């Protein structure tokens, strides 16, 4: 006897209708991957994405355990739920990968990014850039008579909003670190 329950009146009486329904909705996921800190590991991880045509929206990597020689790679990627599952499964099969965490589905997480923005301007535009920087809690880390370099940290959406407001005021250059993320709680 099958454990499958079919609603009365349902037209789905065939076993052929039991295949999972696939979604074509694009989702953004943040993955934290713990790997051995050795030459070539990052290239293998990146190769997995490029070889299958997956896009990386953000990538950060750094050694997190000097004695254990492990690094944490934080990847923000976009794809259908099926593509995200494939990415996680394929990452888990790479030999120097110890753990793969999908922070998007594992519960609440904290995501932060650092950005430097160079804004050129004089007069009222300069004053407005300083006012907006204060509102966004951005710090002026360099200043000349013709420009500022602002440092801002926060969620990627906050940095995007700050950059959008700085463009008409003279934004000429931006550098971003990429997302660093961690799950909340224990």
Using brief descriptors, characterize the structure shown:
single chain, 186 residues, alpha+beta, Alpha-Beta Plaits, five-stranded antiparallel β-sheet, four-stranded antiparallel β-sheet, 26% helix, elongated, disordered N terminus, Acetolactate synthase small subunit, Acetolactate_synth/TF_NikR_C, transferase
Could you explain how this protein is built, in words?
By secondary structure, the chain is an alpha+beta fold. The chain folds into 2 domains: 24-102, Alpha-Beta Plaits (2-Layer Sandwich), CATH 3.30.70.260; 109-183, ACT-like. Chain A, domain 2 (Alpha-Beta Plaits, 2-Layer Sandwich), CATH 3.30.70. It contains 4 helices and 9 strands, in the order βαββαββαββαββ. The strands form 2 sheets. Strands 5, 6, 7, 8 and 9 form a 5-stranded antiparallel sheet that branches. The chain has a 4-stranded antiparallel sheet with strand order 2-3-1-4, covered by helices on one side. A hairpin with a 3-residue loop joins strand 6 and strand 7. It is elongated, with a radius of gyration of 23 Å. The two termini are 42 Å apart. The relative contact order is 0.17. Residues 1-12 have low confidence and may be disordered.
């Amino acid at each position: 006897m099958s454990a499958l329950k079919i609603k009365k009146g349902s037209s789905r009486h065939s076993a052929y209708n039991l295949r999972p329904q696939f979604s074509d909705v694009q989702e953004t996921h943040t993955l934290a991957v713990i790997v051995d800190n050795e030459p070539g590991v990052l290239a293998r991880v990146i190769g997995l994405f490029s070889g299958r045509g997956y896009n990386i929206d953000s990538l950060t990597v750094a050694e997190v355990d000097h004695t254990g020689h492990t690094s944490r790679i934080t990847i923000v990627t976009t794809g259908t739920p099926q593509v995200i599952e494939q990415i996680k499964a394929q990452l888990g099969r790479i030999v120097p990968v110890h753990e793969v965490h999908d922070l998007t589905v594992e519960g609440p997480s904290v995501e932060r990014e650092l950005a430097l923005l160079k804004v050129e301007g004089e007069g009222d535009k300069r004053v407005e850039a300083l006012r907006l920087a204060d509102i966004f809690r951005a710090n002026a880390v360099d200043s000349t008579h013709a420009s500022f370099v602002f440092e801002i940290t926060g969620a990627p959406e906050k940095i995007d909003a700050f950059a959008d407001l700085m463009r008409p005021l003279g934004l000429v250059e931006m550098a971003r670190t990429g997302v660093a993320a961690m799950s909340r709680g224990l």
